[in-house]
Design a protein that fits this description.
By secondary structure, the protein is an alpha/beta fold. It contains 14 helices and 20 strands.
Length: about 450
């Protein structure tokens, strides 16, 4: 089946040849196979933008859809493919739809991202409708916005899609069209795109809701630059990463690094792909990656909102928190149980797994899986979070504990924590911290500054 033909319209009205060439090249490099480009020369500004668009639409007789691109903007290579697919699917269900719009990404005069996206009326139009309802040739600005209002007035429909297809809008001095964007919804987010290994899916909602990430499904990873790949736990994700020809960022989470080292590193050497920027969550991970000839940058990722946590008063009889997920064999559960037995005067709070097979001493309360609100209640009762794992990155519960003013004891090299190795040293340090009598304010202040520094993006 032949794909519908698309007409790309560029009104050449700026004197900046570099911008125009960037725009033209991005249109010429579209992956969609059936399109043509119509350039309307208007350097002398003898025609309004509405007149230019109407003239172009009249000339594109063989095209089903029309896409308007500013001569100082540019498109990602899959822009047409994504837009046509979306509008065709929508019109199959309801032929009254004649236009779709999507988010755009703002860029500065040099082409660098300004760090936010907006909903605007730039999108794909049904040519048949534009022939019947011409653009207002008297208007000098808000031409497309006025036309969108007209869609509803004549009984047709448009759809503002809640995701980004790859339109990059250049902001610079002297723009006429730039003034309209204050009248549309501003999306206070950077252009962050993320793919999470299926093992890490539970973290996705936090990244998307709290930090403005855009989820990219597996089949679309090759369409974008600088996607953040969160975790490599499956062969599928490893294959995607190793074969990438676009720049991507890979964040190693913890045990995924150990699995890669032991199972896959000899057959799939990620150190040789120059398109990958590696991120890790701890100094231990960084050293382990270095052994595999991979240079990694340490970053402190937290999928929650640090603003949700505040320094709590130090309790009168502080207890100890311990996290025991289903993989209790990797989380030192037997060690912490033995420590609890040797500290019968201290209350221990276990969270994470209700089905522990171990017999627990009387000073241990096993809360099981808890909500954030329940965890905050438990935080009011503890002074120390203890964590002893086989491998580790930078766990969220360490972040939440320190942001709450708690002290952390762990067997790994993690900033603002007490590192321990031997059981009796651990007991000694826990008792010392429980006697502090005041919250860990210095750690909390440091984490407020350092957690979720997105400069690596």
């Amino acid at each position: 089946m032949e794909l519908p033909k698309i007409g790309i319209v560029i009104v050449h009205g700026h004197n900046n040849d570099k911008w125009f060439q960037d725009c033209l090249q991005s249109c010429q490099m579209q992956l969609y196979p059936n399109f043509m480009i119509q350039i309307e020369e208007n350097i002398d500004r003898s025609r309004t933008i509405g007149k230019c668009w109407n003239d172009a639409v009249d000339k594109l007789e063989d095209c089903k859809y029309i896409y308007f691109v500013g001569d100082d903007d540019f498109l990602s290579s899959d822009m047409l493919f994504s837009s046509v697919t979306a509008l065709e699917m929508i019109r199959t269900k309801d032929p009254l739809f004649v236009q779709i719009s999507t988010y755009i990404t703002m860029i500065d005069e040099r082409g660098d991202q300004n760090g936010y996206m907006m909903k605007i009326p730039t999108g794909l139009w049904l040519r048949e409708w534009l022939i019947k309802y011409k653009f207002d040739e008297k208007l000098k600005r808000l031409v497309d916005a006025t036309q969108l209002d007209r869609i509803k007035q004549v009984g047709n429909k448009m759809q503002l899609l809640n995701y980004h297809f790859g339109y990059f809008y250049r902001q610079h001095g002297g723009q006429v069209t730039g003034r309209k964007y204050s009248e549309w919804d501003t999306v206070s987010t950077w252009n962050r795109k993320i793919y999470a290994d299926p093992c890490m899916d539970l973290f996705l909602n936090g990244f998307i809701e709290n930090h403005g990430f855009i989820y990219v499904p597996q089949g679309r990873i090759g369409a974008y630059d600088d996607i953040l790949i969160f975790g490599i736990y499956s062969p599928d994700t490893l294959n995607i990463v190793s074969a990438t020809i676009r720049p991507i960022k890979v964040c190693w989470c913890g045990s995924d690094l150990i699995e890669y080292r032991d199972k896959w590193s000899e057959k799939t050497d990620l150190s040789k792909n120059p398109n990958i920027k590696h991120l890790c969550l701890s100094a231990d991970q960084q050293k382990e990656l270095k052994k595999l000839n991979i240079d990694a940058t340490i970053t402190r990722l937290y999928y929650g909102k640090k603003e949700d946590w505040e320094v709590l008063p130090f309790p009168e009889n502080p207890g100890v928190l311990y996290y025991t997920p289903e993989r209790w064999d990797l989380y030192g559960v037997q060690d912490i149980i033995e420590i609890a037995k040797l500290m019968p005067d201290v209350q221990f709070h276990f969270v994470g797994d209700k089905g522990l097979i171990h017999e627990l001493p009387s000073n241990v309360i096993n809360h099981g899986v808890v909500s954030k609100e329940t965890l905050k209640t438990i935080m009011n009762k503890i002074g120390v979070y203890a964590r002893f794992t086989k491998w580790d990155g930078h766990p969220n519960l360490i972040t939440e504990s320190i942001l709450s003013g708690k002290y952390v004891v762990t067997n790994h090299n993690i900033p603002y924590t007490e590192r321990v190795n031997e059981r009796f040293d651990t007991i000694k340090i826990i008792r010392k911290l429980l006697k502090k009598g005041k919250p860990n304010k210095s750690g909390a202040e440091a984490y407020q500054k350092q957690i979720n520094d997105w400069s690596f993006l």
